[in-house]
Structures are given as structure tokens and as C-alpha cells.
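Deviation from plan, reported transparently: pyridoxal-5'-phosphate complex.
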Amino acid sequence: MTMANAFDPSRPAPLGAAEQALIERRARLLGPAYRLFYEEPVHVVRGEGAWLFGPHGERYLDAYNNVPVVGHAHPRVVAALAEQAALLNTHTRYLDEKVLDLAERLLATLPPAIGHAMFTCSGSEANDLALRVAKRATGATGFIVTAHAYHGVTEAVAALSPSLGPAVAPGLHVETVRPPLTADASAGDRFAAEVTAAVERLAERGLEPAALIVDTIFSSDGVIADPPGFLGPAVAAIRRAGGLFIADEVQAGFGRTGSAFWGFQRHGVEPDIVTMGKPMGNGHPVAAMAAKPALLERFGRETRYFNTFGGNTVSSVVARTVLEVIAEEGLAGRAQAVGDALRQAIAGRAAGDARLGAVRGSGLFIGVDVVDGAGAPSALDAARIVNGMRRQGVLISASGPGANVLKIRPPLVFGESEAEIFLNAFDAVLVART
Ligand SMILES: Cc1ncc(COP(=O)(O)O)c(C=O)c1O
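Because the crystal trials were delayed, the predicted structure below was used instead.
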């Protein structure tokens, strides 16, 4: 399956001998399913704040990675991890405060109705668990996802991830809906009508909906943020049909979209289940599912939950420290301010460049449409910009169904001076491609 911004090993790249050897070694050891980014893959050995460093003194501004949300190798997170690892790391079958301290702090960021948190090691596992809980709570088996959704790697959630391509067939229990591509006042009603039509298609197969699950910034669908609130009518529609609303916050959560800590908050909706991961451990594998307690009653009675590494002592301390740092450094507010300014500056460039279209996003998650002379998606030109930026030492990528949406999503410590470096590189690349 081709992927936006994937390195093509059959095309020669001007790489050093060490990098060529690493590519060969990866193929030999890891097999054919892995993909590298960029025409000239990037070799990194160290990270600090919003910067990544190569083995020969190369320096890259990271405008792509959301996982190191508080910055690569944040000293406080590193120290907390090391201290706890030197003391104790065990699982959730012993009495210990650390996982509870994390749960308390995490639940305090969520609506009061979301009362329980369960810990996993990845966003995929969190979504997988959410599906099991939703099915048991509703007694229904159907799921509704967006047309180019990505929800993870397990068999159950890959079946809910049409962006993986036709080789990963969506299950018969899955229906897709188109997210609203234009940010007008009818976007919410249009999206709700899509959900209602999907419920009807499930009913034609004798199925009822267990849940509508959406990535609340619609990243793999091409970054769809506006108008804020457009999710409201769709959430009402799924509830009318007896289904739950699962907010997949793996991309949008932890302050990414600006002053609202969670993506669903921008839409003024209250999920039944929230899933999260990626930035939660700043690179350490910790993720979670949080839910309304009533939804877990039957699940907890009829089965049990144990995840060997999920909620372990070290992960719990790391995730709690990440939450503390985001709050103490005011990173969500900063994402709003820096993101607004950066988005406006990019929109200014787009206004003067016929091959840049809409600029969308919220906080430090920005998507830019790249189009051809006729206004059609241009994956080719998007790849040119992404690779041009990489040669300028700035890392971004592309996404969306047409692989033509520039994806700009830096660590939240990305500030005004980094935005200026980004824009200088962007200007140079836009000029060079004409
Ligand atoms: C929206 C969304 N949900 C779930 C996942 C899966 O998370 P993980 O890779 O941690 O399993 C991803 C990963 O990219 C994602 O973007």
C-alpha cells in the first residue's frame, strides 16, 4: 500500500554510505511492511525540544511529530522516568498509588461524566478496548467511521481504518461517512445526515450501531477542524440511533488543537468514551481509554481487564509528569497562539500561490491543500514541498485521501522563533518549485 511521503527504495537517493547500509539492514531485519519518510530518509540520533539531530551534525526543525508533545527528551519527563525505573516498575495487580495519581489527574481534564480510566500501551489497544466496551454496553455490533479514517493496527481497529487501503477490507459491520469538506454553517447538518444514512445502511444488513468513532481533528481525512461545533448534530444522530460517541483523541488530545485540551471540547460535545495515546507519554508507550462508568458496568461484571504493561508504574509516572508539564508550561495556550499566527502566515502565502488551496486546522495542527492548475489535489506537488522542506532542514509530511494535504504538527514547545524558521524555509521551497 502506498503511503503519503513514503521513501521508494527502488529510486536512488543521494545518501551517505552509513544511511544506505541502514536501509539495507532494515529491509533485511524488519521485512517489507515498514515505510520510511522522504525521498532522502532522515537519520536521527538525538532530540531536544523541537529539534532533531543527525549523526554528522545535521539539525532538523521538527514540525511533524506530535508524540514528543512537551519537546524531545524533556528533562523533567526523562528524570521522572529514570527515577521511577530505578525504584519499581510493576503492573496493576498490586496496590500502588502511581496509576491512581495518573487516573485522578487525567480524569480531571475530562468532563465529570467520564469517571473511569483504563490504561493500555497504544492508541490501537485503547480503541480496540473501546469497541469491546461499546459492543457490550449497547448490545449492538455496527460501527461508523469516516471515509479515510485511521484508528490503529489490531485486526478489529484496522477494519475501522479505510485509510489503510483496499487490501484491509472494512468489516461488514462498518459503514463510512464523509466528513464535511467545506466549513460552512450547514457542515454539522451535512455530517449528521451522513451518519443517519450510515445507520440506515447498517439496518439494511440487520445491524444496529454500537458507536460512531471519529478522530476529532480528522487528521487522516485531511485535517478538518471547522466550523467548531460541527460534530454536535452527528453525536445527537448516533445517540438517537442507540449508538455511542467515541472520541478518538490520539491525534487531537493533550492541547494539540489549542486552548481546548481535547479536540471534542472545540465541538462542545461530550463523548461516551474517549481514547488517547501518542503524546500521553512524550514517546513512552502509554495510552488509555476513559468512559462513563455505566458503560463499564456490564463489561466489568462479565469479563475482566488486565494489560501487562498498561498502567505500569513507570508509564503512570511518565504520563502524570507529561500532564503536569503541559499545564505548568501553558502549552495548550501556546499552541493556540503560535498555531493561529502560523496558520495565518501560511494562509497569506496560500493567497498568493495558485497551487496552495485551503489552510485548515486548530492550534498546532495545520493542514494545507496542495492543488494543480485546475484546482485538483496534487500529491506530486505536495511531495515536492515536503521533500524541499526536508532539504531545508524542516520536517513536515502529507496526508489526506489524495496525499496532497501538508501536515504540520510540531511538538507544542514550537514557538515564535521556530515558526519564523519554518516560514523562511517554506518561502524558499515555494519559490524553488515554480
Ligand atoms: C487517530 C488515531 N487513532 C489511533 C491510532 C493508533 O495509535 P497507535 O499507533 O498508538 O496504536 C492512531 C495512530 O496514528 C491515530 O492517528
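Residues 122-124, 127, 150-153, 215, 219, 248, 250-251, 277-278, 287 surround pyridoxal-5'-phosphate (CB under 6 Å). We consider this an acceptable substitute for the interim report.
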